Structures are given as C-alpha cells and as structure tokens.
Amino acid sequence: MEAMVQPRSPADVESGGGGAYRWVADGGRRAVGGGLRGRLDALRELIALSRTRLDGRTLEGAGRVLETADERYRLSGEHTVVAIAGATGSGKSSLFNALAGANRSQVGPRRPTTAEPVACVWPGSRPGADGLLHRLGVPTHRRHAPADGSSELRGLILIDLPDHDSSATEHRAQVDRMLELVDAVIWVVDPEKYADAVLHERYLRPLAGYAEVMFVVLNQVDRLPGDAADQVVDDLRRLLDEDGLALGEHGEPGAAVLALSAATGRGVGELREALGQFVAERGAADRRLAADVDAATDRLRSVYVAQSRVGLTERARAEFDDRLAEAVGAVATGRAAERDWLRYAERACGSPWSRMRMRMRMRTRGRRGSRGALGFGVGATDAGMTGVGTAGAGTTGVGAYRGGRTSAGAAGVGRTDLGWGGAVRGRRTGRAGAGRGQDGRVAVGEACAEWSRTGRNGDGAEELTAGGRTGTQQGLVGRQSAAGHRRADGAAAAGSGDASVVDGRAAARPVVEHAVRTVAAEAAHGLPAPWAHAVRDAADRGAYGLPEALDKVAAEAEESLRGGPAVKPRWWTVAASLQGMLSVLQVVGVLWLLGAVTGVGEATAWSSGLLPAVLGSVGGPALAWMCRVVARGPARRYGQDAERRLRSAAAACGRARVLEPVAAELLRYREVREQYAVASGA
Q: Which of 80, 96, 107, 559 is most solvent-facing, going by the fewest CB within 10 Å?
C-alpha cells in the first residue's frame, strides 16, 4: 500500500493532482465523505503553500496520495477492489477459486504458480469495472466472472496476486505496485509461515495503519489436529498486535482475523459473508485513502509541527527597535538636540556681550578647523552644531557624542559652547585633563589621528568591536553628521573625514547585523527546520541594505535638526528685549561714571550713574541665569522629541525591511499548520 509506493521524481509531485473530489452519479460514482474531502483539500493546499519552502522529496508522498485519490475517484465507486496476497504455497489461488466458485486461477505444485494477476468481477448495478482493471494492469484474458454471480458480493473485484516472496523479482514488484492501488487486501498465511519475517517486517508492520481495509486469513487449518488451529490463531493475533495492527474485535474497527480451509471449504462461507458486508458498505476506497492521508501526514509531521509556541514576542520586537535606535545613535541625537536648543536659547537670551564672544569663538574655531588642527575636524556651523574636530577645544561636537561614547581625545569635554555648563556638564567624561586649553587640543589631535590611522586609541586599546565600542567609535549618525556638516573651508581635511564616515558605518553595521540575527533567532525558535530556515532567509534578505537605509534615516534626522527649533518661544524675545534694556542701562551708567571720574561731568554726579551701571552689569547675568534654569525643561523635551522621532523612524525602517517579512513567513507557517491539522484529522 502507501508504504510500498515506489519513488517518483519531484516534478511529478508539482502537479499535485486534480481538483475537488466528487463521485458523478451518472457514472456510478458517489460523493466523497465530507471529512475525507476536507482532508484531501487541506492536503492539496498544504502542498501549494509549501512548495517554495520544502524540497520536492519531502512532498512526494503527499503528492502521490492526491494523484491516487484523483485517479480512484474518476473511476467507479460501485466497485470495491480486493486483492488476495500471500507467500508461496499459502493457498491464495485456492481461496480465490473457492470464492469465485470455479477454477479461475491456476493451482499446482509448481512455484511460483501465479505469474500474472487474475481478476474475478462480480457485476455491480452499473458498469465501470473495466476502468479499474485497466488501472490495475490486469490483462483482458485474465479477467473472469464468478460461477454463480452471487448477489451478496455484487460490485466486488477480486484480484489474485503473485507471491510476495516469489523468486522472480518482477513478481514482487508487481505485488508492491498492486498494493498501492487496491481498496483492500486479504492476507493469506498458512500454519508453517504465518510468522514469516518477510511478511511482518516488509508488509504488515509498515501497513499497520491500513488495518480497517485488511483481512488476515489463516488457511489450511484442516492440517492442524484438535485445537491447534485456535492456538495458531491466538499466536497470529499476538504477532499482529506486536506489528501495531489493530484487530477488529467486539465491533471495533480493525483487521478481521479468520481461520479457514480453502481445500475443504471450512470457514470460506464466513469470509464470504464478511466480504459481502464489507463490499455493500461501499466505503473501502474512502477508508483506504484516509489511511493514505494518515500515512502521508505522519511522515510530514516533523516539518509542520512546532516544538513550542512560535512567533515574535513584544519583548523581542522592542529589543530589536532598541538595537536599531542604538545603531543610529538616537539617544545621543536627543542629547545633541537638547544641547542645540540650549545654545539657541543662550544666543537669544544672552547679553549682547556674550553673543559677541560666541561669534568670536566660532570664527576662531572655524579658522582653526580650516588649518586642519585635528585632521578630520569640523568647525561649528552657523546653526551651532559642532563636529568632532572641535571636541579638543572644550566643545562637545555632534560627531563626538552621536554614537553615545567619547574618545580619549574628547574626554575632557566637560563643558559646551553654551557657557551654561551646569545644564549639561559632566555627561561625557574620560581621561582627565585631555580637553583643557592648547594641551587638550594637541592630545585630541594626536588621539584622533592615531585612531584614524590604526583604529586604536592613543593608549593602544584594542580595535573597536560591536560589543565594546569606545568613544572614538562614533555612532552611525555621528559619522554621517560630521561628514555632512563639514565646512568648505575644511576641505583640506576631507580625505580623513571620509575615512571616519566609513569607519563609523563599519562600527554600526555589526550592531544592525546582531539585531537582525537576534530577532530572526527569536522568530525561528521552535519552528521545524525548513520553516526556521525560511524565517532566517526572510530576515537576511530584509537586512540587506538596512544599514544604508538607517544611514539615510539618520541623515534626514540630522538635517531636520540643523535649523534649530521650528518655533521659537516667545519668552526668548522678551528676554532679549530685557537684555537689550539692561545693556543700555549698563552703557549709560558706565559712561556716566566715566564722565564723573574724568571731570567731564559734575564730580558729585557719579552716584547717579552708579545705579544703572550696577543694575545693567548685575541684571544681565542674573537674567541669563534665570533663562538657563527656565530653558532646561523645554530643551530636555526638545531632545526627547528628537530622540523619539529618530527612534520611530529607525523602527519603521526595521519593521518594513525585517519584521514584516519575518511576520509574513510566520503567517504562512500558521496557515500551513492549520491546513496540516485539518489534513491529519487532528
């Protein structure tokens, strides 16, 4: 039966069989049982969904079942094909003749006696037996009618097979082929060979799932004395039970075990009666095909049934998003945005004198950057965004903290351009004294030049890895930002700056790859091997180009922050106006005092100029201090918004490229798992 099917090529499986199964009443066919039809349809859908995920050999058995079902249901449903199989000398042909009521199959001492299958057909209510016999390959001259045409076996097609242990190879091959096609089998054994290992190991044990369409007949019981026949039958039952063959006892479904003698006719009537009832039910073909489906789904169990619950947890998704946020430097970007907001606030709310000092520092820093002080430095932009090249000057640059770490050279950036160090001071610490004055700048220049050449810091630290990034290993955004914000007057340093961008991307790539591998492993956990492989392939395909996509996301985020806050708070204008008024008072008071001291004015008038001078001199810094305190909250929120936007953009990129393809594979697996459950009858 199914276990004896000969292998066919995967190309044969691809066709998968025909359409829905339905017996056509005009042709003597009947409707397929609803349960079996649903199982066959589910098996067909299962193959269709799995063709690109499983190899052809895995699906061969299931494809053959569908083809067999197509062929069988295109033929007569009014006939039941029952084969008589057995070993040499077991009395198969004698039993065949006893049921036919005449000598239709040759019987003799020569072995093997039966070289070709012989058929005996009891006519049914409608024609259709010829199609079945043609499918079985029974020659026309080997087709016979019974002697009496008994109505109790109406619709039976009885086939006498060659010996399954024949010395002729073609006989054994013919038996195996016929067992794949018949609806039921009568296994004939004799008292001498009923325990034959070939019978049990090659046929009965592998075909244990077909017990409902089997008869096991102990022939030649007339040769056994006394109650020996009962003892042999009991031992035969024991062997069948060990083979896993269910026995039909007490009304339970299973194989029928009978004892008879074809020579004397003892027990033949009982077998005839059992066959008549079996044929009248017209359910043998359905039972046989149901057993075929059971066997096919059992073989497919390992590639469809998961070992545990499958799918991506919310925790795994969140961790994936966090790793992508780390790769693009979302946290550092938020802190950079916070510092920029504070810088803008200082410009808007600071005194005219402080703004003048800031412009002078920026010009000085720009000239220093154009001379290539750090080799890959970036001067401060008009928007107040600073690059790695300014880190040694005591200024925290975008490139220095986008990656969330500082280098040995940038370790001393305990203050920022804000002059409001209390707001953000101490967030980046490192080697003591590295960023103080000219010595600090030289240390930064040497450390960064060393890193640019060798990938190591000045102290000979190990090269950067994804798992242990140092400050010199700037984040993906930091490198992109440092390159994107390079001024035209820093063109002399462009070569090494490009190298830093490449190094930064190379540093962030392992983070992205690790994130993809982790989420793919989580999604594939517990899946059968082919589906786990499909999930990992989907993740790998999505990961291709993901670092470049994240580069673009980071660059867009940087560009959106370059111009500063889109809406300037109104209190900046109020503070700037007050600073202007205080500056005017300061100037007037100082001029008044100078006039009194130099004698231009009355000597006693100095007291009148003291008040505005003091008010302007003290009020300006006091107002700036108040603005610093007030600015911390909005700056923090601005930075958090920038971090959230970049994190969301990176997560959306990861979802579109990795999580959604992985989810599609998991959805496909759930679909095939549901179809498998229906096909297996679970």
A: 559
Phi, psi values for residue 23, rounded to 5°: -70, 130
pTM higher than 0.70: no
Q: From CA 491, how far away is CA 664, in angstroms rounded?
A: 48
Lowest-confidence segment of 430-444, 595-609, 668-682 by average pLDDT: 430-444
- Do 115 and 135 touch, CB atoms closer than 8 A? no
CA 114 to centroid of chain Cα atoms: 56
Q: Is the pLDDT of residue 427 over 50?
A: no
Angle between helices 546-562 and 476-484 (to 10 degrees): 50
Contact predicate 175/117, CB 8 Å: no
CB-CB contact of 542 with 526 (8 Å): no
Q: What is d(CA 389, CA 403) in angstroms, rounded to the nearest whole number?
A: 15
Confidence of residue 606 (pLDDT cuts 50, 70, 90): low
Distance CA 532, CA 307 (A): 12
Task: Look up the CATH superfamily of 78-281.
Answer: P-loop containing nucleotide triphosphate hydrolases (3.40.50.300)
The whole-angstrom separation of Cα 441 and Cα 377 is 11
Q: Is the peptide bond before 112 cis (omega within 30 degrees of 0)?
A: yes
Two structure tokens written together for 561: 């922050």
Q: How far apart are CA 488 and CA 55, in angstroms?
A: 58
Region of residue 681 (left: phi > 0; alpha: psi -120 to 50; beta: else): left
Parts of the chain belonging to CATH 3.40.50.300: 78-281
